[in-house]
Amino acid sequence: MSKQTIIVTGASSGIGEGVAKYFLEKGDNVVINSTTPEKLERVYQQLGGGNNLAMVAGNVKDKKTGERLADVALEKFGSIDVLINNAGIFDNKPFLEVDEAYLDKFLDTNLKGTFFTSQAVVPQMLKQQGGVIINIGTPLVYYGLGGAPASAPVASKGAIHALTIQLAAEFGSRNIRVNTIAPGVIRTPMHGDSSDKMAGIHLVNRVGEVQDVAEMIYTVAKSNFINGAIINVDGGMGAGHNLK
């Protein structure tokens, strides 16, 4: 399989870092992104900082960040084959306590970040007659948890699911495929030390690992016939829960 150029947003920890590492190990070129330059530099060095790795610091809610990611990918590697819109935030707050600033925080990072970064890479994908965009969603868009109030982030993720289907429809005939991966609870710094407490919301009665998500993202990125799909990588969370 020929070497491709992969852009990964939100790559300074967790799923993003793991996905970047996975593609590098498979031999691809990778451009990593984070809002925090210091964390991004640390991951850049941990991943080897070689000739097949580049980095761009910046908040994806800003259109210019996506544009810089596209520019760096083209300048260093000559193509943009896969965009992984991983940058995202999640938190719990009761619906009646959500104010405009709190809602905007999720719409900015999750929805605007995904929207504008995709907008930045699609022209090059059209030019090269092919490309893949993979967004990160959540099974909670379709399967709510009453004990975990998360209306603001879930609303933003629901918009990402809808955007995925619409972009797949708009660009599928131009050989640009758009899909969403929806992870369950994954053992990452975002969940801190409490992730294993949520094992029971998955039918497999354990939380997921970053590798589980990275493997699926890689599979979808390299496939030629998956488009407009919302793929749960959730240990059966979307199908039910493991009650004790």
TrEMBL record:
Annotated GO MF terms: 3-oxoacyl-[acyl-carrier-protein] reductase (NADPH) activity
EC number annotated for this UniProt entry: 1.1.1.100, 1.-.-.-
Pfam families given in the database record: adh_short
Protein keywords: Oxidoreductase
InterPro entries assigned: NAD(P)-bd_dom_sf, SDR_fam
UniProt GO BP: fatty acid elongation
Family the UniProt entry places it in: Belongs to the short-chain dehydrogenases/reductases (SDR) family.
Protein name: 3-oxoacyl-[acyl-carrier-protein] reductase FabG
The species this protein was found in: Sphingobacterium thalpophilum
